[in-house]
Amino acid sequence: MTATRTGPALARSFRDIVLTPTGVRFFGKRFPCSLGRAGLRIYKREGDGATPCGVHRITGVLYRADRLTSPAPWAKPIRKGDLWCDDETAPDYNQFVRAPYLFKHERLHRPDPLYDLIILTDWNYPNALPGQGSAIFLHQWRRRGYPTEGCLAFQRKHIQWIAAHAVPGTRVVIPPRV
How far apart are CA 79 and CA 128, in angstroms? Predict the structure, then answer.
């Protein structure tokens, strides 16, 4: 998604993952979550620490098979050497890449549990515009209230539940005011 979607596109359904003042609502359940350290922004920029507003869609699920069972039949295991390019000068900006990789990137196979389960979104993907933000995921939080670099983060059991009930194309609705 390269531009924010607002107005009628923000209409919500029971099957949408919707950010509310009390956390995320999905299938009638509410889950506390953490946002980017800079809050919400309609105009996202690389490295600004903001969570981008709009309607995003889930494009994939990645998980650490050495730490978790597959959360969904369509989930793919994270392997050593799996990376995500966050270098806006790279030809693979905001794309999955493999090590060795010369441009700036995030390791997906991490020693901490933050990326044990990653729900990928279509923010600035697959046809990324340089500088519009990268690696906007749903993943596990460090602890409640601890901000992210722009992602939505959840308690481990909650992100597992969300991943088990979401399907490709599930909408993630982040209104400009929560």
Answer: 24
